[in-house]
């Protein structure tokens, strides 16, 4: 990202203000900052999903140009609030992360309750690891918030994306499943960028980028309590 600015004019909101940021392939980065700092907007800009001025490149490709679809196909996105389709099963929601490559026979398998070609073993392993095997048949509307979050995590991980974006990945999870979700992010063979309010989660990442009012105010190792207090209390860093 070079001089990246995102403004929502209809709301009079400057979400990102001249952000310069470079993340190497395979790197793991935690995004910190108070609500409204621009964390979610930054993640969405990597997929060309918000109006932006400046330069964004993902693997050398422009998410605001002809490469948008290709970049999104190679990215897993765990959205804040899980973003599931409530009227269908947890299983179908989890499998939707691979839909870009589905053929007719894959749809037939999914509608009969099976994973599409090439994903059955990985799906079973992820479902078992994240403790959702027993709730996959239920509609998403019948699941708890934590269960929906775990289904959404499986959806993001299933295609084995090269870029994994996570927006508050531990929302609604108990300490045990939260630790498992964070472990899954670190074990993914991908470039990982995770936005979080949880300093404990951020401390597991080798690099922390902190945003405040749309600007980068820290970029380096996990922060100590003094710096974090300044970030969240909006004092001068």
Sketch the major β-sheet: 6 strands, mixed
Q: Give the count of helical stretches.
A: 9
Query: What is the typical, i.e. mean, pLDDT?
Result: 89
Tell me what portion of residues adopts beta-strand conformation.
15-25%
CATH superfamily of one domain: P-loop containing nucleotide triphosphate hydrolases
Walk me through the structure:
It is a single chain. This protein is an alpha/beta fold and 237 residues long. It has a domain at 2-74 and 161-232: P-loop containing nucleotide triphosphate hydrolases (Rossmann fold, 3-Layer(aba) Sandwich). It is 32% helix and 20% strand. The protein is built from 9 helices and 9 strands. The protein has helices spanning 39-45, 68-73, 90-95, 104-111, 120-129, 145-157, 175-187, 199-202, 225-232; strands at 2-8, 13-19, 28-32, 53-55, 75-78, 163-167, 191-195, 207-212, 215-220. The chain has a 6-stranded mixed beta sheet with strand order 5-6-7-3-8-9, with helices on both faces. A 3-stranded antiparallel beta sheet has the order 2-1-4, covered by helices on one side. It is globular, with a radius of gyration of 18 Å. The two termini are 22 Å apart. 40% of the residues are buried. The model has no long low-confidence stretch (mean pLDDT 89).
């Amino acid at each position: 990202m070079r001089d990246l600015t995102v403004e929502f004019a209809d709301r009079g909101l400057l979400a990102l203000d001249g952000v310069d940021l470079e993340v190497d392939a395979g790197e793991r980065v935690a995004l910190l900052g108070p609500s409204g700092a621009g964390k979610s907007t930054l993640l969405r800009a990597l997929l060309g999903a918000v109006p932006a001025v400046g330069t964004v490149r993902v693997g050398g490709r422009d998410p605001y140009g002809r490469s948008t679809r290709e970049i999104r196909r190679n990215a897993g996105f765990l959205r804040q609030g899980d973003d599931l389709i409530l009227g269908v099963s947890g299983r179908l929601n989890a499998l939707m992360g691979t839909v870009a490559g589905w053929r007719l026979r894959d749809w037939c398998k999914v509608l009969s309750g099976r994973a599409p070609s090439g994903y059955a073993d990985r799906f079973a392993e992820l479902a078992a690891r994240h403790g959702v095997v027993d709730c996959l048949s239920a509609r998403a509307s019948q699941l708890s918030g934590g269960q929906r979050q775990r289904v959404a995590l499986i959806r993001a991980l299933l295609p084995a994306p090269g870029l994994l974006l996570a927006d508050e990945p531990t929302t609604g999870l108990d300490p045990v499943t939260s630790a498992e979700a964070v472990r899954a992010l670190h074990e993914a063979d991908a470039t990982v960028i995770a936005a979080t309010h949880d300093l404990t989660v951020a401390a597991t990442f080798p690099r922390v980028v902190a945003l405040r009012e749309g600007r980068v105010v820290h970029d380096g190792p996990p922060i100590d309590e003094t710096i974090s207090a300044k970030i969240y209390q909006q004092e001068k860093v």
